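Re-running the complex after MR caught last week's input typo. The corrected sequence lines follow. Everything else is unchanged.
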Amino acid sequence: MHTNYICHMNINKVRVRFAPSPTGGLHLGGVRTVLFNYLFAKHHNGDFILRIEDTDQTRFVEGAEDYIYQCLEWCGLQPDESPKHGGPFAPYKQSERKAIYKQYAEQLIAQGNAYYAFETPAELEQIRSDEKINNFQYNIWTRVNQKMKNSIVLGEEKTKELINNGTPYVIRAKMPDWKDLEKTIPDYREKLVETGENPFKKTVTDLVRGTLELDYANVDDKVLLKADGMPTYHLAVVVDDYLMKISHAFRGEEWLPSLPLHVFLWDNLFGLENMPQWAHLPLILKPDGNGKLSKRDGDRLGFPVFAMDWTDPKTNEKTIGFKERGFLPEAFINMLAMMGWNDGTDKEIFSLEELVTAFSMERVHKAGAKFDYEKAKWFNHEWIKKTTDYRLLTIVKPILEDAGINIDDDKKLVTIIGLVKDRCTFLADFIQQSVFFFKQPENIDVAAIKPKWNEQKNLFFAELIRAYELTQFWKHDELEKEFKEIAAVNEIKAGELMLPFRIMLVGGKFGPHVFNIAEVLGKQETLSRIKYCLKLL
RNA sequence: GGCCGGUUCGUCUAUCGGCUAGGACAGCCCCCUUUCACGGGGCAAAGACGGGUUCGAUUCCCGUACCGGCUACCA
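Corrected-run output:
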């Protein structure tokens, strides 16, 4: 028995999957689902699988799959197996697994757990309006109505005939009712009284929600196999999770209502004992009001919702991503992790490695979290400060170059990055904070100093130029010392001269300590900017 | 409507029956800084409501309210 248990553990290596539908940009909530999958897998030395759920051919979007890989790569959450990376359970794209699903649907029919239905979508639409039932559902009551065209009403012969004639059909789950039970367990009533066990009720443990009481009676007869031969999500997720040996299945809370269906399918196809452990993650909500966060909210409130820029190939409409808005992937991941999870301490800044070590599904919060862009910005700022100047160089350099700044000296840029990163919330902030190191400022805020300008200050700067020309050690502390000495000799408060000096070098009232700027600029450039500015005053 | 889930400062959250309810973001104030930041210090701010259980409930149970999700041949 003991050996058996160990063996069992080995077979059931942790394997999780993220199964997006490639229909457009990758949403914050999607990335968080990836993250939690990834963290859980890596924490347990398991595998993280990416499966593409493209069973709805009407929703195919060019480039969407490739985009998902790019987002995962940017985030540093690489799958161990995927359509692109391959793996022992290929193919990982459901459209390429079409043939697999049908046999399971037919197995269910053979077992009496599913049936054929011949209504077209239009006919179902018609029923909904004719019957004036807004939510007409195919279920244990309606499926036996003589008006319905399904294998239960029509009988075996007629059904076969229709199928042989090429009539389009779907396969629907036949949710159990008491009459069916009577056939298989004649004395079920006594048993129910004796044991109190309702065979249609199942208890499932959800890793974040605890014990869930499920009732098969709560779901209707969902379509399992569509008329085009493709499975719906419901069938595909169960079949593929089984075939791919998924040990833990994590998904958004919006799937909770169909959990009884999925459990029903596991029950009748592969056995509950083989079912993965479920965890239904809380939703990410709109910052204002309520409801699920959507791309629209980002557009409306001015923040990204997608991981990376996404351009809809049909409308050419571009939606901004966190990457392009100037977020570091570390910050993006960190922020997402803290929405709904914490390690029980006050620690908030985590690297991916730290998250992998600390993560546990039991510490995931149950309630949805409103997205707070201000906090997201704080995470980014923290990560910019925390990231080494050298690593920032590789990220910031292309951004500056794109902005038309020519970088000839990486060492100089590293110094500058160290000087300015405290004041950058977004990576793009490096442009404004560094451009004046490389180019003479285009706009000089002379208005900030002109009103208080006088001949005395003119003389001071003339003297400063002479002194700086002779300076041997062009270092910020030396420059500051000389500056203050000359100010003292001329009997001007240094404070009144600092701002003019800053404006001369930077163009505006911002940037690091002015003498640090002068040091990086070098003697020639510093003097040239002072001289240029004096002419404007 | 039906079913399922949720409910601690404005926001993200800690608390696994003992609470003067802790932290972070945002806000406000002060210090540091002759720019802007960083940093340091401080202020303000919460257990939806009603019943139980208990010596004691934010914590456990039940109702109510509110919020959300689902209710497609979409995922």
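None of the earlier attempt is carried over here. DSSP finds 23 helices and 13 strands in chain A. The two ends of chain A are 91 Å apart (CA to CA).
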